[in-house]
Design goal:
mainly alpha; 0% strand
């Protein structure tokens, strides 16, 4: 009893004279069960398995491995984290300071990074690699409405709902910016091997069923 009192008094005295009391508390935020470099909490938040080493995987097919998504602060489940029309992998690997996968308008000029032309070759950043990347890596269309996921992010429509505003007209046949061009034709280039229009409105054959 007396020993316990003396120890408690000594600790309090140390604190009162500026001493330090060090407590060791486990950090659950940094727990990494599979040792793949990505914390359990982050993996669970983004739909990854924290008990399976998957750092080298690329869940959203955007050209960034999961470990790179963690380090760059991007979403491994979303190919275009900032919704600017330019895939995360493209923004990281293009070498331009004018693009950032977590900032839709990196240079704050009012134009989304995807619509910029960083190398001044007449082709927007988001269309730059359409002719070279595989369709799964570049032009996913999760809801089959004729508008690529990355373009839906930019246009403000849902990449998982073919009729985002439930008005009976598919997002591809809408004209979100009122410029006279359907959403599905808005960003396609002639060199886009994955585009389904190639200058013609082929998606009109698709009908929504309710």
């Amino acid at each position: 009893m007396h020993t316990t009192i003396r120890r408690t008094t000594a600790v309090l005295a140390a604190l009162g004279t500026g001493g330090l009391l060090t407590l060791t508390v486990p950090s659950f935020a940094s727990t990494d069960s599979d040792g793949d470099g990505m914390p359990n909490r982050w993996e669970l938040r983004h739909g990854l398995d924290p008990h399976k080493a998957n750092a080298r995987g690329d869940k959203d097919h955007d050209g960034l491995r999961n470990i790179a998504e963690f380090r760059d602060g991007t979403d491994p489940s979303n190919e275009d984290t900032d919704g600017d029309g330019d895939d995360d992998g493209d923004e990281v690997h293009d070498g331009y300071k004018s693009t950032d996968p977590t900032d839709a308008d990196t240079d704050d000029d009012g134009t989304p990074d995807g619509d910029e032309d960083a190398d001044h070759d007449g082709v927007d950043n988001e269309d730059e690699d359409d002719a070279t990347e595989t369709c799964v890596a570049d032009d996913d269309d999760s809801d089959n409405d004729g508008v690529d996921n990355e373009d839906e992010d930019e246009q403000g429509t849902s990449a998982t709902d073919a009729d985002s505003d439930d008005d009976g007209t598919s997002d591809g046949l809408e004209d979100s910016d009122g410029d006279g061009t359907d959403n599905e034709d808005e960003d396609n280039q002639a060199s886009d091997d994955c585009g389904d229009d190639q200058g013609q409105d082929s998606f009109t054959t698709h009908v929504l069923h309710f």
